[in-house]
Design brief:
InterPro entries: MIC19/MIC25 (IPR007964), MICOS_subunit_Mic19 (IPR052632). By secondary structure, the chain is mainly alpha-helical. The chain has a domain of 114 residues. It is built from two helices and two strands; from the N terminus they run ββαα. It has a two-stranded antiparallel sheet. About 6% of the residues have low confidence.
Length: 174
């Protein structure tokens, strides 16, 4: 029988013309209880009539049914409590898993953001270095052009002086 929470129900029962027990209000009885209800309650094992002992048997039967119902209710209550506890345990585990997953996602997002910022920083540094290299390249090209110009002037002056000296020497020894 699965069942929800505990409920208190009043069960009324009566005997039909064959002294079979009929349960009213749709309460289901276990097979063992039905078998016990069919058995004679006297120690001799023979059926008794419904005179004075009938009332005692009805009381005993009511006690048995009440005990069986109490046991069944206790079993249902225990099952319901187990389900509630298991549900709470599953809920706690789900919440814990969600929190762990959320923390992992946040850590991953933070790490990704940090890596993105690092990449941007390195890109800016690389662009700065590139500008610096271009500036140095322009400076050195300018210096090289000046040196080449000076060298050309120096070559021209020395060539002129050589030619002048050569002409002088040549004019003296002619």
């Amino acid at each position: 029988m699965g069942g929800g929470g505990s409920s208190t129900r009043r069960v009324t029962f009566e005997a039909d013309e064959n002294e079979n027990i009929t349960v009213v209000k749709g309460v289901r009885l276990s097979d063992s209880l039905i078998d016990r209800m069919k058995e004679p309650s006297s120690p001799s094992g023979r059926p008794q009539n419904r005179s004075a002992t009938g009332a005692v048997n009805d009381e005993e039967l009511k006690k048995r049914i009440a005990e069986e119902l109490a046991l069944e209710r206790a079993r249902r209550d225990a099952e319901a409590q187990k389900r509630r506890l298991f549900g709470k345990l599953l809920e706690r585990e789900r919440i814990s898993s969600n929190e762990h997953l959320t923390r992992a996602i946040l850590r991953e997002r933070a790490a990704t953001e940090e890596e993105r910022q690092k990449a941007q920083r390195f890109a800016r540094q690389l662009e700065e270095k590139d500008r610096e290299l271009k500036k140095h390249d322009a400076y050195y090209k300018e210096q090289l052009a000046r040196l080449e110009e000076r060298s050309a002037q120096f070559y021209k002056v020395t060539t002129e002086q050589y030619q002048k000296a050569a002409d002088e020497v040549s004019s003296r020894f002619k």
